[in-house]
Structures are given as structure tokens and as C-alpha cells.
Amino acid sequence: MTDAPMTIREMCAAFDVTPRTLRFYETKELLTPERVGQRRLYGKRDRARLTLILRGKRFGLSLEDIRQLLDLYARDSVNEAQMRRACELGRARLAQMQAQRAELDEAIADLTTELAWGEGQLARLARAAE
Amino acid sequence: MTDAPMTIREMCAAFDVTPRTLRFYETKELLTPERVGQRRLYGKRDRARLTLILRGKRFGLSLEDIRQLLDLYARDSVNEAQMRRACELGRARLAQMQAQRAELDEAIADLTTELAWGEGQLARLARAAE
DNA sequence: CGTTTCCTTGACGTGCACGTCAACCAGCCT
DNA sequence: AGGCTGGTTGACGTGCACGTCAAGGAAACG
User: Fold this and answer.
1) Which of A7, B1, B97, B99 has the most other CB atoms within 10 Å of its CB?
2) Which of A63, A97, A105 is best to mutate for the B interface (most B CBs within 10 A)?
3) Can you list the residues of chain B whose pLDDT is less than 70?
4) Neighbours of A71 (CB within 10 A)
5) Integer Cα distance of A111 and A63 in angstroms
């Protein structure tokens, strides 16, 4: 059931995107749904890809960045050179993500500190108001 | 020394941005450099803010999102209501960042797995080539 | 003094990621 | 046959985050 192809509307509901978005991603070769006559049908593969696309976006990657990454996930890298290149990109991206993770930890720490200060001030104000 | 005000060029060199970008951020009220006559001078505060701005961007935040966040970091939230609101936003953002962190960890795990598979394939190809 | 250099403020242009609208099938219902 | 629903392809519009001139001020240099 969960691997049955979905219509464009079902996709939109499931991933909270608009039809325009899905068709746009298709022109960018991020998705390649089947066609039944005219209509698009999105299979398991496209759903997995869309998950990765949206995740990538949440981290500020461009659609072009994401397309490169998807090539790594697409196991059909026919020849060795292509595959080697995909692995290169993957390693680079991994390093980048780890750096981003470190930065995110720092940002979380900063914000936590700042927030503690803010809450402290509020508490002080509350006491002063009595 | 490190807290001496910087010119726009020095800022550009230090943060790897263009003058246009700094002026643009100013129109968006993200930066508020001093003026000496016409020229801008960026102090410690603006440098700190710019650091946060660029960090925010790396995580896909819009400039408007970032402006909201900077309000929290700006300790001059005059009245209590404003301050309370800033803390609200901060807590929400913190939760969001923690979620993003979890997602990032997952993405890193995925990519690591995928990469291991890819490297494995390459190794297999290398052995087969002998 | 003129020229060069650095900076300034508009104003318009650009690339990305879509939104919006028009016109047009293709089934299905009655 | 007529109409509705849901999907399709263009084509053009939009918001954001700047880039790219154009025109000019002010200071520094020879």
C-alpha cells in the first residue's frame, strides 16, 4: 500500500507542497514520475527523493546542490568515473555537514545562554514589580 | 585593537562579503554602523551581529527571520512585553534548532551509509579489474 | 589645482524558487 | 451531449537577496 504510486494531489497533501513545486522540480530533473497518459504518478523512488530534497532545503541547499547529492543516492551511477565523482561529492558534503553540525551546536549553546539571561531579566522584573 | 571600528572594505575582507551586501543589510535594519561624515564605521556590535547573520544564513534562515532573532540578542529590549516576546521567539527558535540538529544527525547517518556502500562498490570494481 | 581613490546614494538588473493565470485535454457522471 | 473534476503545458508575475552600473561627494596625493 505504502509503495503504491501516488497522484500529484496525494503527493502535495503528503509532503505539503504545491503541484507547481512538483512540476518545477521535474523540470529541474529532481523528480521523474511515471506517466499514465498525461498524468504523473509518483512512485517510492520519487517520494524518497522528495524527502531528501525537502530536507536539503531546510539546510539552505540550492536545488542544484541537491541535484548533485541525489546523484550519489541514485545507485545507477553507471560507470566507475561517475561513481568516483559521486563519492567525492558525498565526502565533501559529509565534511560540510559535520562542520554545520558543529556550528549548529555552537549556535544552540549561544541561544541557550542568551535565553537564560533573558529569562533571568524577566524574573528580576517580576520580583521588582511586587 | 580588535574592537577598533572597521571601514566597509575591512569588513568585506574580514567576512568575505561585498559592500553592497553590508549596505543592503543596513536598509533591512540588520546593521546600524556609525557614521563619520558620510562613511560607515562598523564597531564590535555590528561585527557580532554580522557573524550571527551569516551563521543564520548558512542554516537557511531568511534575513527577516534573522532580524527577529537579533532582537533577542539586542539587550536593549526596553519594556517587559517586548522582552517577553523576544524570549518566546528565542524558545521557539531553539526548539527548531534542536529539531534541525536531530535531522542533521539523521542526514549525516544516511550519507555515511550511502558513502560506505559507494566506496564498497568502488573497491569491488577495483578488485574485479585485476 | 587637478586627479585619483574611496565611499556614497539611487535606480535598475538578475537568478532562484516558486505563484498565478489562461487555455486546453481526458475521464466520469447524469 | 453537457458539465464537473482533476490534470496538463506554457507564459508571465513575484519576493528575496543581492549584483551592476551611473552620478556624485570628500579626502588625499602629486
Assistant:
1) B97
2) A97
3) 1, 75-78
4) 16
5) 29
